[in-house]
Design a protein that fits this description.
Helix content: over 70%
Number of domains: 1
Order of helices and strands: HHHHHHHHHH
Number of helices: 10
Number of strands: 0
Radius of gyration: 18 Å
Structural class: mainly alpha
């Protein structure tokens, strides 16, 4: 009985891993060479400001558009160095997430259900209610789940200050990892390291998130 019950869970885990690899690898293979070429040109021509603005805009728009943020943040580290790459990437990620949080805090659940679906909204809203704004910190490096957690957090009207701090800290840590690995890959001219930078952080975060999503929020808070 237990084995048969575990099979769907294992299948979902495998499917989730495959989808995560596809979400990260496919855009990387398509967009990576273009970013590499632009990075080299930006470094040669010293177009630091132009690249920084482009990276900021793309990462800010990642909250609503299917933009591979890991690729952009890694490229920012390659072109701008680890420190400036982290600042630009963290600012872009934070700006988009805070803006979405503010919109959803006003619009509420109806818009959230239309954006991410009623079932996913109910799950993420329950997680947000159970774990508070720090659910965003756990899911920040995970494509799709990151955006859904911000949307749900705003829709349940989580506290402003705690949510802002959670978004800022998680965005900064995520950006720092990508930018640092991107800068290392640039110094070593390593395509493999670039792929690892785009894939490993979201993969590790997804494994943590999977355990969190499987848990039933509020199990210890049942009404007497």
């Amino acid at each position: 009985m237990t084995q048969s019950a575990d099979r769907p869970s294992r299948k979902r885990t495998i499917l989730g891993i495959v989808l995560l690899f596809a979400i990260v690898i496919v855009p990387f293979l398509w967009l990576g060479p273009r970013f590499n070429a632009y990075t080299v040109a930006a470094m040669r021509d010293r177009e630091t400001a132009g690249f920084a603005i482009l990276a900021f805009v793309l990462l800010a728009a990642d909250i609503i558009l299917p933009i591979p943020s890991s690729v952009v943040a890694t490229a920012a580290g390659s072109a701008l160095g680890p420190w400036l790459g982290t600042i630009v990437s963290a600012t872009g990620l934070s700006f988009g997430a805070v803006a979405m949080f503010a919109v959803m805090r006003t619009a509420g659940a109806p818009l959230a259900r239309r954006l991410i679906g009623a079932r996913d909204y109910d799950r993420f809203a329950a997680l947000a209610a159970a774990h508070g704004p720090w659910i965003v910190a756990v899911l920040r490096p995970v494509p799709v789940l990151s955006e859904a957690s911000v949307i749900a957090l705003g829709a349940v009207r989580a506290p402003w200050l705690a949510s802002f701090v959670s978004i800022l800290l998680s965005s900064t840590v995520t950006a720092a990892v990508y930018a640092t690995l991107g800068a290392m890959a640039q110094r070593q001219s390593s395509e493999l390291l670039l792929i690892a930078a785009a894939l490993l952080p979201p993969a590790l975060a997804w494994l943590i998130a999977h355990r969190l999503l499987r848990a039933k929020p509020g199990r210890g808070d049942r009404a007497p």
